[in-house]
Amino acid sequence: MLNYIVRRLVIALIAIFVLATVTFFLMRLVPGDPFAGPRVAPEIRAALRAYYGLDRPLFEQYVIYMWNLLQGDLGLSLAARGHTVTGIIATAFPVSLDLGIRAMILSIVLGIAFGVVAALRRGTTFDYLTVVLVLVGISVPSFVLAGLMQYYFGVYFHILPIARYETFWHTIMPAIALSLGTMATIARYMRSSMLEVVHADYIKTAFAKGLKPHQVVLRHQIRNALFPVLTILGPAVASVLTGSFVVETVFAIPGLGRYFVTAMQNLDYTLVMGLTIFFGAFLIGMNFLVDLAYG
Q1: Alpha carbon of 189 to those of 111, 194, 214, 229, 263: distances in Å?
Q2: How is residue 84 annotated by DSSP?
Q3: pTM score, two decimals?
């Protein structure tokens, strides 16, 4: 088991290194200048490029960036003057994490519950409604659902606040909009997996041993049906816990998504690279935990 953990950890570190390298060179291929502007004099632009090290050869910039990255330094933001990328992440990530935890709880609890009940009541009205919910959740983009919820619950019925992230009531619509897609995916996998194990030999043996139906479902069916769900939980948890660019932008939530969109618009190289590496490392880390969960 120890050798397996070490091997997976080495693979994860290599993946992060490749991600950082590819992101660095791709950002340098993006046309434009982060310091360009009609009011920026050429000498000021040259001074800013020298201050941030953008006037050095590309390979030298890469070596310096990777060395700083090994020390946990993601650099200075080019647009948010005086702010480090690490500081921005430390400020914004707790907001995205809070929203993501709420959405993930909804996704996992309701997704597994819908999938299990739909499988146990196959062919009933509840099963058909679950299938419809799955299709809607997978097909409808989160920003469409967010806009519809804002209109009906915020503007038309005046039940919930339209935007911002201040009280519990502000978190309801963003959490639902962020969770629906993952919830539908988990429900689909859980239903299919439950239907596959229901006729397995160990299920028949469990009934033959005299176990009650609810004991068979909890101890054998659900437990073994969770393996396919575990596979998708890694990337699903990572994407939900780090927030959604679109959902955070629609609801004006000061999370990582808003900073990422702003950084792309401003050609903030260091912030885009830092956020991309952070997202990638988080995703790789969650997949690593899924591998351990399999063990």
Answers
A1: 9, 8, 21, 6, 36
A2: B
A3: 0.78
